[in-house]
């Protein structure tokens, strides 16, 4: 495999005229256009003083040109650092101070706020908007197309992706050319991507899911993408006839199953639907299957590792599991502290090892050491279990584990019981500070419209099904659970809102 990610991609280009991206508005970028546009952008980057290994921080709206910028950074041998568009100026300041980029690219609307921050750190600042306008686009337009790609070794850094960091400081996961290339290439094979693939791309590209799992996999297969600015159920349903695959987060599938346009006929030609970034409810999986005949393929990954496991392409895709370890990737379950490896069926922390696993956290050697075992396994922080057939199940995050009166309570176990009750749409179980128990098990429940369900009803229904120490001390009802753009449930928000619940 070539050392640099771009060299790998270049080796897979099917033909210059093949479509790489089409937008709903009708614009089209071929693989040949991609080479021309990324060549101009790479020349512009070098002109701005970007050298191999320099960081290029990017906070812009999703657009094809944003993807071109990522590829241009790869061609220049620099390190791409995408930032969530929702981050405030204050938040971006932290990343700029931490990563010390040579160049910061932002939306023109954010220029004034970010200029002093870039100045202070000696970073150049340029702009790019969703319509490919801005000072960086101007520089690129004036630059030549021809660019000699900077060679990089597999172990050289390609990207820094900051973890969403719901507790403590956000950490920069350092991903190498080999991490990204090997993982996307594995997915091409495992999920049978080819030049015939047309992926409906409706994910943000500042996150590993949209940038690597989706876009990189398509590009390494020589396939095409139909590009949506963001997920919109009407647009997705209308676009289905033009595509063959869709990658989504669970909330996307929840919206699709509620859409009258989701039918067997509308999806008959589709080859694959995948879901990840958060747990897909078994109920969503089943409803989707009943309406379309397609079993959504659920997989599991994270910023630090890319994809680790996947339900099989041909075999049985089991709802509520994330499938088997991908080729070349080892997954095991261990006790949280001592790291003793546990047998099938036992719950512990998931640990992974393979060419996909990142090189460590940017400028955090201590933190990096803490998260790796001496034999090279990365401690994911996800709690899970591998069943007798080898399917991996995720039970939750280690930090969401509740310790009440000295007993461990896995929120997922309690949530699963609550979700079975008539009139419950979904639930989240959290630990809130409790004067007697340390943490009090607390259930936050979304009721079905019109359901007459009280706090007492829920607790009574769970008695006899769960040990007493697992029973919620309080049940709170809400209209919806807080989720971020990747569909991840934000338990930290619920914990914050209820920190004084027990006085
Ligand atoms: P991120 O680094 O933002 O991609 O988040 C990674 C985390 O998302 C993982 O550590 C898991 O906790 C969670 N996650 C990803 N995929 C799944 C899945 N299929 N089921 C449950 N949790 C998932």
TrEMBL record:
Enzyme class, spelled out: ligase
UniProt entry keywords in alphabetical sequence: Ligase
Cited PROSITE patterns: AMP_BINDING
Listed GO MF terms: medium-chain fatty acid-CoA ligase activity
Ranges where the AMP-binding enzyme C-terminal domain occurs: 413-488
InterPro entries: AMP-bd_C (IPR025110), AMP-bd_C_sf (IPR045851), AMP-binding_CS (IPR020845), AMP-dep_synth/lig_dom (IPR000873), ANL_N_sf (IPR042099)
Keyword Ligase among record annotations: yes
GO BP: fatty acid metabolic process
EC code: 6.2.1.44
Domain AMP-dependent synthetase/ligase: 25-362
Reaction equation(s) it catalyzes: 3-(methylsulfanyl)propanoate + ATP + CoA = 3-(methylsulfanyl)propanoyl-CoA + AMP + diphosphate
Family: Belongs to the ATP-dependent AMP-binding enzyme family.
PANTHER family: ACYL-COA SYNTHETASE (PTHR43201), ACYL-COA SYNTHETASE FAMILY MEMBER 3 (PTHR43201:SF8)
Protein name stated in the entry: 3-methylmercaptopropionyl-CoA ligase
Species for this entry: Rhodoplanes elegans
Species lineage: Bacteria, Pseudomonadati, Pseudomonadota, Alphaproteobacteria, Hyphomicrobiales
């Amino acid at each position: 495999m070539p050392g640099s990610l771009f060299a790998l991609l270049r080796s897979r280009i099917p033909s210059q005229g093949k479509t790489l991206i089409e937008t709903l508005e009708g614009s089209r970028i071929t693989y040949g256009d991609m080479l021309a546009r990324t060549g101009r952008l790479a020349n512009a980057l070098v002109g701005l003083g970007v050298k191999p290994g320099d960081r290029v921080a990017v906070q812009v709206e999703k657009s094809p040109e944003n993807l071109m910028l990522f590829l241009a950074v790869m061609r220049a041998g620099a390190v791409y650092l995408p930032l969530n568009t929702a981050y405030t100026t204050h938040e971006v300041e932290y990343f700029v101070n931490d990563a010390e980029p040579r160049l910061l690219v932002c939306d023109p609307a954010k220029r004034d706020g970010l200029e002093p921050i870039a100045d202070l750190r000696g970073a150049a600042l340029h702009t790019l908007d969703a319509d490919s306008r801005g000072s960086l686009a101007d520089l690129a337009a004036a630059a030549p197309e021809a660019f000699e790609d900077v060679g990089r070794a597999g172990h050289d850094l390609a990207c820094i992706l900051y973890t969403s960091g719901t507790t403590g400081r956000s950490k920069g996961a350092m991903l190498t050319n080999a991490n990204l290339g090997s993982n996307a290439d594995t997915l091409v094979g495992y999920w049978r991507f080819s030049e015939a693939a047309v992926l409906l791309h409706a994910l943000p590209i500042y996150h590993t899911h949209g940038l690597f799992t989706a876009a990189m996999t398509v590009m390494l297969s020589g396939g095409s993408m139909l590009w949506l600015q963001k997920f919109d159920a009407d647009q997705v349903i209308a676009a289905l006839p033009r595509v063959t695959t869709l990658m989504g987060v669970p909330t996307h599938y929840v919206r699709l199953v509620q859409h009258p346009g989701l039918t067997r006929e509308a999806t008959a030609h589709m080859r694959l639907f995948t879901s990840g970034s958060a747990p897909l409810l078994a109920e969503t999986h089943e409803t989707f299957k009943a309406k379309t005949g397609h079993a959504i393929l659920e997989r599991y990954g994270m910023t630090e590792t890319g994809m680790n496991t996947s339900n099989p392409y041909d075999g049985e895709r089991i709802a509520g599991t994330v499938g088997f370890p991908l080729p070349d990737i080892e997954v095991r379950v261990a006790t949280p502290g001592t790291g003793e490896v546990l047998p099938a069926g036992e719950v512990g922390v998931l640990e992974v090892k393979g060419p996909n696993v990142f090189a460590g956290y940017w400028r955090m050697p201590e933190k990096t050491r803490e998260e790796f075992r001496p034999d090279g396994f990365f401690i994911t922080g996800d709690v899970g279990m591998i069943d007798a057939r080898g399917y991996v199940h995720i039970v939750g995050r280690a930090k969401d584990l509740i310790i009440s009166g000295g007993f461990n309570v896995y929120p997922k176990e309690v949530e699963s019981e609550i979700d079975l009750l008539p009139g419950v749409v979904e639930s989240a179980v959290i630990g809130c500070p409790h004067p007697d128990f340390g943490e009090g098990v607390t259930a936050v429940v979304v009721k079905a419209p019109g359901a007459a369900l009280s706090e007492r009803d829920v607790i009574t229904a769970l008695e006899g099904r769960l040990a007493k120490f697992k029973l919620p001390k309080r049940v709170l009802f809400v209209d919806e659970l807080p989720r971020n753009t990747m569909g991840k449930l934000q338990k930290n928000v619920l914990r914050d809102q209820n920190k004084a619940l027990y006085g």
